[in-house]
Amino acid sequence: MFTIREIENIYKSHKDPQRAKKMSAYMRNNFEFYGIPAPFRRELSKAYIKEGKKAKSIDRTLLTDLFKNKYREINYFGLDLLKAQSHLLTIDDFYNLVGLAKIRPWWDTIDNIDSIIGGLGYGDKVFEEKILDLASNDNFWLRRIAIGHQRKYKDQTDPDLLAKIIEINLNIPVKDKDEKFFIDKAIGWALREYSKTNPAWVRSFLQDAVNDLSKLTIREASKYLD
């Protein structure tokens, strides 16, 4: 199996300081970048991801190191590897994934991990209990995962669970404008995705909750509604 040093070396050899500066600025200067565009980054790491996909088990130490790396492209590689190995994940990995999500969290990693976690236990009551617990977590990034975990379920979405998670979050006081923005956006995005499958339900939900939802949430949720 490859090492993190191999990935660092290949990315470092293609660094672009000017692009890196712009990429960091886009992410509010929260992270350092090599300055490698996503398509090129994936091309550089394609062979390694292919190797990881063939692995018989997940190297959790390697994943943790990838997520902890100071360069954001290395974190993205960790996400790509996790997706490639998702067939090896079970509900027993729930809190391992939550642990990864808590490492250097921002929307770009959270909005990938949510669907990976969502793939662990569709229709499983134990999984639902874990998700509902996450929905009320003090860490708003983890709550965002709970809100968005069904985004790819389409017609298998559990609307009652979605409504319950949203209601939980509407009753949690936000600490600052960032928390409010990212939670409101997540609720709107989750509703918008479900509106592609069940617009009538989403329209009804918005009507019933119009006084509780922010303008941002309603705007996001209404994007594909007539």
UniProtKB/TrEMBL annotation:
It comes from the Bacteria. InterPro entries: ARM-type_fold, DNA_alkylation. This is DNA alkylation repair protein. It comes from Anaerococcus degeneri.
